[in-house]
Amino acid sequence: MRKRNNSLIVEHDTTVTTLQKDSVHLAPSLKHSHEAASSKGSDNNLDIDEKTGMRTGHWRNSWLSRFKKLAVWLLAVYICIPFIVKICPAIQAKLVFLNFVRLPYFIDLKRPQDQGLNHTWNFYLKPEETITIGAWGGDHRVQLYKVLSSQGYHVVAFDYRGWGDSEGTPSESGMTTDAVYTYKWLKARSGKSSVYIWGHSLGTGVATNVVRHLSVKDTPPDALILESPFTNIREEAKSHPFSLVYRYLPGFDWFFLDPITESGIIFPSDENVQHITCPLLILHAEDDAVIPFHLGRKLFDIASSKSNRKVQFVSFHKDLGYRHKYIYKSPQLPHILRKFLSDPNMHQ
After folding, report:
1. Domains of the chain
2. Distance CA 283, CA 42 (A)
3. Rounded CA gap, 176 and 81, in Å?
């Protein structure tokens, strides 16, 4: 996702009292002076530290005042955020796509070899007249590409419009268009080779949109693999850690979820999987804090209710620490893929 020191001015009595033989006459005066000092300290609500001689009351009052101001400011922000999101649904769309968060920084997407992808070709596709998308991406997915490549798979990865060095602005319909175009482009050049579609996180919503579209046209891919999927965007948004401070308050759906729908963002994977005709493999880690494990399991239960194709769910124990995006680290992943994709009964 400073410490400030307060300077305290301590006044010291500079009067030096000379004791003489007749010290008895000085006692009433000293006692009167002490009482006056005590009375003064009491009136100003100041305590004197016995070790340092410093007055601490002012320090406490200052920090208490600052804490109160901070608490009021945070409360005001907390109250205002739901109304801002409701009035400006585009803000909620930004939070769903997060395409403005560009990680990692300072890499040249035209040079995949800089990321250790020595046999990778960077190129661009044009799904629409005014949109150009780049055909590979960075971050943790690079490690997945390496795993798949080591198993003999050719990987075509692309950045949706608005991500990476791809042009345009993200939208569910636009991202689906990009994916359909890329699949058709690849299918036309793959000959008799099998083509599989892999989606991760938000990409699982795009993937189910695409495969449903292809299934309806009777041209589905050879298999669909969903890594860390969700059921639909409303259930995912309600389960996301960002929503924790608001999800139990009245009006949460109206303030936060309805604006997402109003922005045309649905990603109905739970509905899509009921129309998908190709084999489906779901991978999910139990300790996924971004898309909870129970959403992936729920999607599997819905998909497996259709008995006309193979559906498999593979979970990864929370002790493995794979969380949301490190399933590629599993030494079992290559075996899981080979077994699923080479199954002769996969299409039964």
Report:
1. 89-341 (3.40.50.1820)
2. 69
3. 30
DSSP state of 284: E
Task: Determine contact, residues 211/183, Cβ cutoff 8 Å.
Answer: no
**pLDDT value of position 102:** 63
Are 180 and 213 contacting, i.e. CB atoms less than 8 angstroms apart?
yes
Q: What is the pLDDT of residues 158-193, one digit of tens each?
A: 999 998 889 999 999 999 999 999 999 999 999 999
Measured distance between the N- and C-terminal CA atoms of the chain, rounded to whole angstroms: 49
199 Cβ neighbours under 8 A, 6+ residues apart:
205, 206, 207, 208, 224, 225, 226, 227, 229
Q: Please state the length of the chain.
A: 348
Q: How confident is the model at residue 110 (pLDDT cuts 50, 70, 90)?
A: confident
Helix (H, G, I), strand (E, B) or coil at 285: strand
What is the average pLDDT value for the chain, to the nearest integer?
82
Indicate which residues carry an active-site annotation. Answer: 201, 288, 324
Tokens of residue 63, six digits: 């920090």
As to burial, measured by CB atoms within 10 angstroms (0-12 exposed, 13-18 middle, 19+ buried), residue 48 is middle
- Closest Cα partner for 203 from 178, 167, 168? 178
10 Å CB burial of residue 286 (0-12, 13-18, 19+) is middle
Residue (of 300, 298, 286) closest to 235 by Cα position: 298
At residue 62, what are phi and psi to the nearest 5 degrees? -65, -45
Tell me the three state secondary structure of residue 347.
coil
| Phi–psi pair at 284, nearest 5 degrees | -155, 135
Angle between helices 57-87 and 89-97 (to 10 degrees): 100
Confidence of residue 346 (pLDDT cuts 50, 70, 90): low
pLDDT above 80 for 16: no
